[in-house]
Amino acid sequence: MCLSVTDRWTEDSHAMEDEKSYDPEDRTLKFVERQDDIALDEDPSVLKAEMSCGHAVTPESLTGWCKYLLSQGQYKFICPALIGKRKCDVEWSYQEVRRLAALTALEMQQFEETMSTLASTKLFDVKSCPGCKTLVVRQDTFNLNVHCKVCSADKGQAYQFCWQCLSPWKNPGLAIGRCGNTGCSNRELQLLKECPTVSLSQVQGVTDCPSIRACPTCGILLEHDKTGCKNLRCLRCNKEFCFVCLKLKSECKKTSSPYKLCPSGVAPRQKAIPIWSGNQR
Predict the structure, then answer these.
(1) What's the pLDDT at 16?
(2) pTM for this model (two decimals)
(3) Most buried one in 158, 192, 213, 252, CB count within 10 A?
């Protein structure tokens, strides 16, 4: 499992208070008497339903898992259940999730707004303006000086902010490289530089690996949960890569098992973050 370090989900303060449960008279659902394949709960008193992939869920566990995926920047809902050592990875439709998670009207609004936002960030270099919070597309990936049209219209004068530190741009003489704010730095590069090292318990010989990596394809920061094999599927670009050597899985598997140290060893900490065009396949 991989954990994105950015784009955390923020739950509404009016989150549901009562625990969800299925209606035992609902004949549109297939109820099963086995453990919840997401929460691994075996309580026989809790009614469970079967997803299209064959795995059992409760509305609580399904809602929680899908909210987690959204918080990690993933707008596609992938089954996390294990089949032996392999993940199911079947994609559920939003319609199926909405029904079996018994989403409330508020949750449906949250899900749909978040899914729309994430879909747009997948196609463009997008961030939320620190002034008005609307999404801004950066046209020039090498220019840190970004102009927000909404704030400029509201303020009656040009509003620019730094793509790197998200503070108002203070240095008009340097339109591209330095915003003029004290302490401005690339927070993502800082995370890559300062994150602790970890051991991957299921991967033989990997005892000192940076705990955070930038996806070699799209640049999103990912964190390994320290269990399972060394390969991760990126939540944004959907590419699989080796967390240890940073090669794509298709290349790494030519010389190494998913559960053994790569011949080239552990790749050093990354000093640059790949820039993703959004249309790479």
Answers:
(1) 41
(2) 0.49
(3) 213
